[in-house]
Amino acid sequence: MKEELLQVRNLCTYFYTDTGVVKAVNDVSFMVERGQTVGIVGESGCGKSVMAMSIMRLIQNPGKIAAGQVLFKGRDLAGLTDKQIRRINGDRISMIFQEPMTSLNPVFTVGNQIAEVLLLHRNMSKRQARERTVELITTVGIPRAQGVFDSYPHELSGGMRQRIMIAMALACEPELLIADEPTTALDVTIQAQILELLGEIKKQYHMSIILITHDLGVIAEMADYVIVMYAGKVVERGSVKDVFMNPSHPYTCGLLKSKPQLDMENERLYTIPGQVPGLIELPDACHFYDRCEIRSSNCKKGFPGESLIEGSHFAACIKAGRHKNE
Prior knowledge:
Elements: E1 4-17, E2 20-33, E3 37-41, H1 48-55, E4 63-72, E5 75-76, H2 82-88, E6 93-96, H3 100-103, H4 110-121, H5 126-139, H6 145-149, H7 158-170, E7 176-180, H8 188-205, E8 208-213, H9 216-222, E9 225-230, E10 233-239, H10 240-245, H11 250-257, E11 307-310, E12 313-315, E13 322-323
Helix pairs in contact: 4-5, 4-7, 5-7, 7-8
Subcellular location: Cell membrane
Membrane topology: Peripheral membrane protein
Keywords: ATP-binding, Cell membrane, Membrane, Nucleotide-binding, Transport
């Protein structure tokens, strides 16, 4: 029987600025089962990273979780104190941040930064933490682990720094790993190695992964379930097979059409027309309306609810399948 690990219910994360309220994450709901990889995809600025930071309770002023719940094993993380959330972050839930060079402290060795997690959450001695850290560095495929322990971030390559971030995230064998653009700024060979490593680690630790990316190829390779976000909203969700084989929201269709194919004969790639709307004072209508090639006047009558396509496949489009409330 499948076990529910994380459930996000109607999450709203807003940034209160002098120019207005930025609705970065606006009424988002989804679920992650134990052992499942959920991919979150969308253009830059659609709310993917803000949602991840909301789950970890790392939103800073002027941002705020305005509404909704983040249930981890039935416990609402949004309602915990800072002290309570610190016991969970890095222990039961860990995150690989987007850019390891800015996430790692340049004045401490990478080994000490990994060991710090173990000292905080596992009450190990310094010797035990060092031994465990060397094991972790070896586990993520870095040779000469003893020497790397005493290296500083600037002494390592981008791929090695990313592996160090993975080792740090795995230190306490978390149940949920959030990977925010884990292959950004890496060349394609290193990207493939990092993705393969994440797949192996998932099996080894039987953990769940939330994989955030704008790369549909990564989603196709790694994810079991995919959530497509646009302007702070979920516009389509379903199994990877369902979404890729039967895309049912015009935005998802546009993303798939804009991906390069080996057998492409056209000289120019497809681009979705128009611009992403600003997230301040969004209209009470489909946010994709101005860019949609199949829009109609009915699309202006409010943001569409989810329509059931089939099974667990939904799309927020009035022209996609029958409405789930029917």
